């Protein structure tokens, strides 16, 4: 795990970037003091930032798409649970309460960077002497909370983008899901740490599995970005060193993809008929796109898929596409069920979980019902009622994300950061 580098001085190049970014952020902060109004805010003596892909990437021109259950809401609730655990234990942070400011990255690095400006607003000195209201009076700005650390992000591309800003303000960042090897460079990412292994570990495991299966001719597919491209790069490097394994072709899924892009990938994979095995480092949305394209091409059962941890055991990647995914081998970091989290999550309701501003949307999507006439849920007319909630809460257990062992390690990592800071 990389260190936080507390107390590291900025070199002249970094100082110049810091001044430039500070000027830019100052202008943004003046024009929009509360930058991310649709976020979770939990009051506390120390505020912890959070970045989660609550929604998928939206279509061109729209930042956010559909709500994400497993990677988004479930992990977000794991953070809320972790905060509750820390705050309820008087021995961890005595007389100090941890608060939170949780933002949605919408699975897009540029949008996440925009949202993350919220975390550094309190550290910027803003000149508001020339700002006046329409009546000539000076405006009253709400002072933003000072974020002392950030949990996230999930995607490596998002963590990389955000880390470049947070390090300029010496804000520690701990990721629960970013596995790109380049994030191990503690000279560039000296304030970044993570509780999951880098992709080089799973790339080695995938090479070992490919050899164990007797495959010597495979293709690779990657999502555009650090996670997909660097993951495939690590797999190809290790396979070259191991020998006895040839890469038929290496394909990339564009970040702003269309349905025809996935169809093209399937056609290209079929150009090498002797290479049925496909190693895929891609987001769960891209995995769904590839599986859907294989179905449209009537090639269900033709390919032998080997998926990285972004596929893992997620239901979202294969929901209603199970026939196209049959026989797939996927990689997943070691994890363990945390019984306390199961009990916490299965008892969340609309009444007792109002702090999660996206929970109502999750409830509608998960239980296929509408809460109000202005609901975004347009494919059903069934209203969410008390009686249906009782039924759905039982079904909920089948959709549960088992809290990974990494989240418990992450909880104590967070505690260590703030315990150290409060002792200084």
UniProtKB/TrEMBL annotation:
<protein>
    <recommendedName>
        <fullName>Receptor ligand binding region domain-containing protein</fullName>
    </recommendedName>
</protein>
<dbReference type="InterPro" id="IPR000337">
    <property type="entry name" value="GPCR_3"/>
</dbReference>
<keyword id="KW-0675">Receptor</keyword>
<keyword id="KW-0472">Membrane</keyword>
<feature type="domain" description="Receptor ligand binding region">
    <location>
        <begin position="75"/>
        <end position="361"/>
    </location>
</feature>
<dbReference type="GO" id="GO:0016020">
    <property type="term" value="C:membrane"/>
</dbReference>
<keyword id="KW-1015">Disulfide bond</keyword>
<dbReference type="GO" id="GO:0004930">
    <property type="term" value="F:G protein-coupled receptor activity"/>
</dbReference>
<dbReference type="InterPro" id="IPR001786">
    <property type="entry name" value="GPCR_3_mGluR4"/>
</dbReference>
<comment type="similarity">
    <text>Belongs to the G-protein coupled receptor 3 family.</text>
</comment>
<dbReference type="InterPro" id="IPR000162">
    <property type="entry name" value="GPCR_3_mtglu_rcpt"/>
</dbReference>
<keyword id="KW-1133">Transmembrane helix</keyword>
<dbReference type="InterPro" id="IPR050726">
    <property type="entry name" value="mGluR"/>
</dbReference>
<keyword id="KW-0812">Transmembrane</keyword>
<dbReference type="InterPro" id="IPR028082">
    <property type="entry name" value="Peripla_BP_I"/>
</dbReference>
<dbReference type="Pfam" id="PF01094">
    <property type="entry name" value="ANF_receptor"/>
</dbReference>
<dbReference type="InterPro" id="IPR001828">
    <property type="entry name" value="ANF_lig-bd_rcpt"/>
</dbReference>
<keyword id="KW-0325">Glycoprotein</keyword>
């Amino acid at each position: 795990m990389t260190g936080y580098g507390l107390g590291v001085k900025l070199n002249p190049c970094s100082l110049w970037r810091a001044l430039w970014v500070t000027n830019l952020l100052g202008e943004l902060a003046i024009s929009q003091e509360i930058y991310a109004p649709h976020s979770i805010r939990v009051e506390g003596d120390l505020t912890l930032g959070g970045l989660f892909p609550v929604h998928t990437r939206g279509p061109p021109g729209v930042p956010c798409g559909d709500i994400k259950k497993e990677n988004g809401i479930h992990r977000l609730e794991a953070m809320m649970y972790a905060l509750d655990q820390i705050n309820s234990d008087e021995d961890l942070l005595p007389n100090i309460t941890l608060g939170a400011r949780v933002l949605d990255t919408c699975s897009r690095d540029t949008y996440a960077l925009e949202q993350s400006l919220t975390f550094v607003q309190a550290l910027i000195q803003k000149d508001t002497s020339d700002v006046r209201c329409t009546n000539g009076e000076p405006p009253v700005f709400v002072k933003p909370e000072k974020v002392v650390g950030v949990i996230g992000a999930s995607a490596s591309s998002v963590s990389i983008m955000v880390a470049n800003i947070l390090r300029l303000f010496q804000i520690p960042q701990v990721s629960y899901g970013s596995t790109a090897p380049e994030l191990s460079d503690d000279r560039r990412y000296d304030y970044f740490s993570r509780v999951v292994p880098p992709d080089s570990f799973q790339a080695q495991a995938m090479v070992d599995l490919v050899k164990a299966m007797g495959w010597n001719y495979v293709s690779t597919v990657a999502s555009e970005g650090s996670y997909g491209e660097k993951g495939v790069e690590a797999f190809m490097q290790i396979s070259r060193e191991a020998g006895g394994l040839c890469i038929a072709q290496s394909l990339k899924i564009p970040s702003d993809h269309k349905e025809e892009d996935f169809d093209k990938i399937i056609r290209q994979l079929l150009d090498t008929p002797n290479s049925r095995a496909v190693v895929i480092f891609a987001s769960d949305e891209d995995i769904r796109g590839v599986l859907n394209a294989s179905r449209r091409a009537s090639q269900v059962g033709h390919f032998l898929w080997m998926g990285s941890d972004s596929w893992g055991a997620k239901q979202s990647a294969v929901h209603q596409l199970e026939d196209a995914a049959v026989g797939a081998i996927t990689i997943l970091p070691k994890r363990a069920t945390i019984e306390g989290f199961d009990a916490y999550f299965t008892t969340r309701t609309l009444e007792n979980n109002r702090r999660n501003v996206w929970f109502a949307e999750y409830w509608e999507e998960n239980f296929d019902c509408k809460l109000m006439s202005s609901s975004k849920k347009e494919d059903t007319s069934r209203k969410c009622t008390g009686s249906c909630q009782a039924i759905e809460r039982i079904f909920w257990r089948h959709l549960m994300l088992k809290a990974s062992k990494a989240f418990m390690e992450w909880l104590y990592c967070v505690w260590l950061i703030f315990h150290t800071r409060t002792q200084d």
